[in-house]
Amino acid sequence: MNNYKIVYELNDKQIDDLMEIYSQNWWSKKRKKDDVICMLKNTTVVIGIIHNDKLIAFCRVLSDFVYKALIFDVMVHKKYKNKGLGKRLLKEVFSYEKFKNVKNFELYCLDEMVLFYEKFGFKKINLNLLGKEV
């Protein structure tokens, strides 16, 4: 992982890079920059991977630091996929000092990503999940 830097806060340029990464995914391509800025301010932990001053991978976590940590938006820029960066993001999450006492990590993923996350100990579960989009 030479020349890669881990950051826990994004500057303005890196937020623009994040918007580019969001535009590459069907489920996040309609996100608006103002909303993303608000989301970042209200996220417990942000983890980014930087290469040559460009954000190339990103994830975020909401947590109470005891019972739950919910991982969101594990994303890698399309030019950097299959280089182990998703794995690196998750390792950063699990080694983050404030998460050392968290009892349960959760995430949502597409079916094609289940095998990837199972390598980290995640198990597919069925939930009666209710949601409302406004």
SSE arrangement:
Layout: E1 4-7, H1 12-23, H2 33-41, E2 45-51, E3 54-63, E4 68-76, H3 85-95, E5 104-107, H4 114-118
Task: Describe the protein.
The protein has helices at 12-23, 33-41, 85-95, 114-118, and strands at residues 4-7, 45-51, 54-63, 68-76, 104-107. A 5-stranded mixed β-sheet has the order 1-2-3-4-5, with helices on both faces. Strand 3 (54-63) and strand 4 form a beta hairpin. The protein is 28% helix and 25% strand. By secondary structure, the chain is an alpha+beta fold. The protein contains 4 helices and 5 strands. It has a single domain (4-118), classed as Gcn5-related N-acetyltransferase (GNAT) (Aminopeptidase, 3-Layer(aba) Sandwich).
Features:
5 strands, five-stranded mixed sheet, Aminopeptidase, 134 residues, 4 helices
